[in-house]
Design a protein that fits this description.
The structure holds two protein chains of two kinds.
Chain A: E1 12-13, E2 26-28, E3 31-35, E4 39-45, E5 49-59, E6 62-69, E7 78-82, E8 88-94, E9 105-109, E10 112-118
Parallel strand pairs in A: 2-8
Antiparallel strand pairs in A: 1-2, 3-4, 4-10, 5-6, 6-8, 9-10
Chain B: H1 15-31, E1 49-53, E2 57-63, E3 72-77, E4 80-87, E5 97-101, E6 106-113, E7 124-128, E8 131-137
Antiparallel strand pairs in B: 1-2, 2-8, 3-4, 4-6, 7-8
The chains are: A mainly beta, B mainly beta.
Chain lengths: ~130, ~150
């Protein structure tokens, strides 16, 4: 790829509609969304989240991805430098395409969620012959 | 290769940094958010690092989702820790249209000046769920030592 140095992605905190009652923090994960003829692919950065911590929900046209971070660093440690914050992840998308919900595949590797949302096959036009009586 | 850069400011040498840190520790205390500090903004060199210490070691954490362990190159030289690597994410499809493209790809390198002397033999690095943890055991001479008080 390019020789340009990578920049730090500054995490944005989720602005929730309701007021949170737990002292938990949610961040917006960085995503890549691309579409092929067959499916919509989604890649989301969720470091610290393991397979069991992922929650995906597709309701009507709204896709919600959630990642629950498991475990925290040692509590006995004294912080010397803190450049990133840790917390859970949450993000919502509106998907225009019709998705075959039963065929959604999700995988998690190295803190990266890979989601494949296959499109529903377009209805094939059917010609109806009119028969003479 | 890109020129290696250190942190923008000398973090461990600045006498005001301690005061600033103390202020943030107090803020965290009153916020009651489980001792979570607000991160200091302005880190621009990937990856962002969290550094903590305990009695025996210094722990350096970095969020590097999508980077394979084999693509990482970590070295300690004197009191400088360098983290180099590359993030390659292949889609595996040729024809596609992007709706969002926020995840950066490419090479990165970062250097950090360690606050104390360490034992380079015992440095360990592991990745788990996209988080890199480097544990650097402190050198014997800088570990806290208990001194017994004797009375005659």
């Amino acid at each position: 790829m390019s020789e340009k140095e990578m920049q730090v992605y500054q995490k944005q905190e989720v602005r929730q509609a309701g007021e949170p009652t737990k002292p938990e923090r949610y961040f917006v994960p960085a995503v890549d969304i691309y579409e092929t003829d067959e499916a919509v692919h989604l890649l989301a950065e969720m470091p610290g989240v393991d397979r069991s911590g992922v929650e995906i929900n597709l309701e009507n046209d709204t896709l919600t991805i959630k990642g629950h971070k498991s475990g925290n660093g040692g509590s006995e440690e004294r912080v010397l430098l803190r450049e990133f914050e840790t917390g859970h992840y949450q993000r919502r998308f509106t998907i225009a395409e019709t998705i075959d919900q039963a065929k959604i595949v999700a995988s998690m590797a190295d803190g990266l969620l890979n989601l494949v949302l296959p499109k529903v096959e377009p209805a094939k036009p059917r010609r109806i012959e009119v028969q003479c009586g | 290769m890109a020129i290696m850069r250190f942190y923008d400011q000398p973090v461990f040498r600045n006498p005001w940094a301690d005061l600033e840190k103390m202020r943030r520790e107090f803020d965290a205390l009153f916020r009651g958010g489980g001792g979570d500090f607000p991160a200091r903004p302005g880190a621009t060199v990937f990856p962002a690092l969290n550094v903590a210490e305990d009695e025996h070691a210094i722990h350096v954490r970095a969020e590097i989702p999508g980077v394979k362990a084999a693509e990482l190159d970590i070295a300690v030289e004197g009191d400088t820790l360098t983290i180099k690597g590359e993030r390659r994410l292949e889609t595996g499809v040729e024809k596609c249209s992007y709706h969002r493209r926020e995840i950066e790809r490419g090479r990165f390198s970062r250097a950090l000046t360690l606050p104390t002397r360490i034992n380079p033999e015992g440095v360990k690095a592991t990745t788990q769920n996209g988080i890199l943890l480097i544990t650097l055991p402190k050198a014997e001479e800088v570990k806290p030592r208990r001194i017994e008080v004797k009375s005659d």
